[in-house]
Amino acid sequence: MSPAAPPPAVTAPPSPAARRMLDWRVRFGVLALIWGFSFLFIKVGTEGFAPFQVTFGRLLFGTAVLAIALVVKRDRLPRGARVWGHLTVAAFLLNALPFSLFAYAELTIPSTLAGICNATTPLWGMLLSLVALSEDRPTRVRAAGLGIGFIGVLTVLGAWQGFSGLDVTGTALALLASFSYAVGWIYVRRTLTGAGASNLSLAGSQVGLATLQLAVVTPLFTSLPESVELVPLLAVIALGALGTGYAMLLQYGVVAEVGPTTAAMVTYFIPVIATAAGVALLDEHLSWNTPVGAAVILAGAALTQTRTTTVASNAPTGAEPTRAAAAPHCGHHSAGAEPTPTATHPVASNAPTGAAAAPRCGHRSAGAERVGTTDGAPCRA
């Protein structure tokens, strides 16, 4: 007589904590997809509109999404002329300028290359922090990451063959856009810490100011298109509403649930998705040095984000050492991708923000939920 079969296992329903973990992973994946596809949206948008028009459109639709969120959350705009002055500068450095540069760059370079250039933001941030942030001196590991990252840049550009076949102007514009993100994050860190407004309020105000800046500039350098093609228009709408608006709101929730360090990991998926999208949907050519160089850039960028382990001198014996949360990127954006937003001031949308980590803060995320203290947080297209 055979032994009785064991009773079927009873599977308990997932706990609320497990459901939340699944939920943030889903939103994390959606965020990476949106910001990775932003470079494709830029490329398609420039087929029907001038670069400034693409930038103005993305900012306009992004502002609309964030304005709706502000109304729904009943959040208030920042107060004080000083705060608005700094937000105006931040809007230029983190939105108006890099968004426009990426749009112009993609007139002559593939979206895959633009996405990879966007990943250099942490390297620029690390380099600038050596000069601008005396409290953010690099360790040997982070300095090595900087060197490795720029070797990756040279690999992507094919330096050994004299950059043949490469549009120097377009590539320089894309790299300059990433540099602008790094400068912008350092500026935000120095000027908008403790602004007394929520992340959503600061971000919505900044993107709105960038929209006004482009509203002034665009008519000066462009004329209305003779006809509006549907596909480029949809690309611009998606770029703004999804990449500059909705993605930022997704980022708030991820940072609030799992912290800025984990949320910053989205930075490393953006160039991979941008490359896959460009090759698969736009039939862009990909030589061997492009993915290899991109991998080297990401490895260097990851090393620049490491932080040393510190133990408080008065910590009790056996206490666990605390590790500062690594700043991401920025992005960002979210660029084509805007910078991954910091917990202090999530403003751009798919370009990674780099070593210039936002200072610790207790500002509230969207929905008035308090984000834990951080040493920097995730963007930049």
Task: Describe the protein.
With 381 residues, the chain is an all-alpha fold. The protein has twelve helices and two strands, in the order ααααααααααααββ. A two-stranded antiparallel ribbon has the order 1-2. It is globular and about 55 Å long. The N and C termini lie far apart (68 Å).
Going across the major beta sheet, what is the strand order?
A: 1-2
* Biggest beta-sheet profile: 2 strands, antiparallel
The secondary structure category is: mainly alpha
Number of helices: 12
- Overall mean pLDDT score? 78
Order of helices and strands: HHHHHHHHHHHHEE
Mass-distribution shape: globular
Helix percentage: 55-70%
Could you give a short description of this structure?
This protein is mainly alpha-helical and 381 residues long. It has helices at 16-45, 51-73, 81-105, 111-118, 121-132, 140-157, 168-191, 199-221, 230-258, 260-263, 270-282, 289-304; strands at 309-310, 322-323.
Tags for this model:
381 residues, two-stranded antiparallel ribbon, mainly alpha, 2 strands
What layout of secondary structure does this protein have?
Layout: H1 16-45, H2 51-73, H3 81-105, H4 111-118, H5 121-132, H6 140-157, H7 168-191, H8 199-221, H9 230-258, H10 260-263, H11 270-282, H12 289-304, E1 309-310, E2 322-323
Helix pairs in contact: 1-4, 1-9, 1-11, 2-3, 2-8, 2-9, 3-7, 3-8, 4-7, 4-11, 5-7, 5-12, 6-12
